[in-house]
Amino acid sequence: MKRVLRRLGRGVRFVFRNFPLGEMHPHAVEAAEAAEAAGLQGEFWRMHDRLFEHQAALAREDLVAHAKRLGLDTARFASDLDSGAVEERVRGDFASGVRSGVNGTPTFFIDGVRFDESWDEDSLVEALQQATAK
Fold first, then answer.
1. Which of 32, 47, 88, 130 is a plausible cystine mate for 38, CB 3.0–4.6 Å?
2. Cα angle at 63 between 40 and 60, to 5 degrees?
């Protein structure tokens, strides 16, 4: 997606929603919550990327270590993880995805329509260019 967005520039808006598949990935929910907790400190994408790059290190102590590595306030991060607010956000995103017909990740929507074609970079760029040309 980063390459797609770089190619299209400001002509497209990317909206991310959490859809953790906990049955397939045992720490998916906690990782999504950690990204949201980091987001409360303005570091959602840095945490998101770090967790994606370190998928074997997603236990609670790993999440706090990732937050520390990113320079976050780890006491606040841990408190936010425990507060329930990030859990509610992730749960809300997941429910919204289910209502929209999401059943796996990634799932893309272009102008509110589910995009079921190939998600390779060129196909996504072409579909988005067509949508923005309308």
1. 47
2. 115
Please state, in angstroms and as integers, the Cα–Cα distance from residue 60 to each residue in 15, 28, 70, 128, following that order.
27, 12, 16, 38
- In the numeric block, which tokens belong to residue 70? 């990113």
Instruction: Write down the pTM of the prediction.
Output: 0.89
41 is written with which tokens? 């400190």
pLDDT digits (tens, 9 = 90+) for 26-42: 999 999 999 999 999 99
